[in-house]
Amino acid sequence: MNSNRPKNLDLTTIELPLPAKASILHRISGFALFFAVAFMLTALNASLESAESFAELKSTFDNGLAKLITWLILSAVGYHLIAGIKHLVMDAGIGESKEGGKVGAIITLVGGAIVIALAGVWVW
Amino acid sequence: MVASITNLGRSGLYDWVIQRLTAVILAVYTLFLLGFVIAHPDLQYSDWQGLFSCTAMKIASLLALISICAHGWVGMWTIATDYIKPTGIRFLFLLVTAAFVFVYLVWGIDILWGA
């Protein structure tokens, strides 16, 4: 290959293809989830400590901010899960072509959007 | 090569397997919890506490907790080595990550066994 080919690695000037968008969202959701574990453990602790703390946690979810955080975490879990399944499917050798990658990305993004919408309906 | 002293499996191949094995464990655990919550529309403390007090659920939850820690470490390590080039800052980032992982693990065990 000609080593003098011009290259452009400036991401701000590149329109990311769909598989790249699906991939970076997988990474961002994973990064967020790493810190979201603190919220999950806090909630798990309150839910198991006593009947009173369970009831208190339940009433916390009436709060708008708590609903928003819950929805964001559920969205990240849902998207990360779907993108992860896509990853495993591709590990199995399915959809590795350029077209297949695009189809997989569309399924992931649409599936993710559906799960995020369902999570929103459930929370509110 | 000294680049691989901070990754969990000491090699990319082990990390690759760990990431996928823990992913499957977490997916199954998540879908089980989702199913349980859907099956109990008006979830009561007794249902929830009853679920988490049985030994099988404790084993599954501990497995999921360890999986979160391993999966999170491999993921954060990948992000750190992709984006943070200066060794000192990357090391600091990984140190903070390790602290989170350790706290999650001990805290999670404490919650599950209700000390």
- Proportion in helices of chain A: over 70%
The termini of chain A sit apart by 55 Å
Beta content of chain B: under 5%
Q: What percentage of the residues of chain A does DSSP assign to strands (E)? A: under 5%
Number of strand segments of chain A = 0
Helix content of chain B: over 70%
Quick one: biggest sheet of chain A? none
* Average of per-residue pLDDT values of chain A: 94
- Low-confidence blocks of residues of chain A: none
End-to-end separation of chain B in angstroms reads: 44 Å
Would you tell me the structural class of the helices and strands of chain A?
Answer: mainly alpha
| Main sheet makeup of chain B | none
The SSE string of chain B, one letter per element, is HHHH
Q: What does the oligomeric state look like here?
A: heterodimer
Q: How does the helix and strand content of chain B classify structurally?
A: mainly alpha
How many separate helices of chain B? 4
Spans of chain B with pLDDT under 50 lasting ≥5 residues? Answer: none
Order of helices and strands of chain A: HHHH
> Mean pLDDT of chain B, rounded to whole units?
93
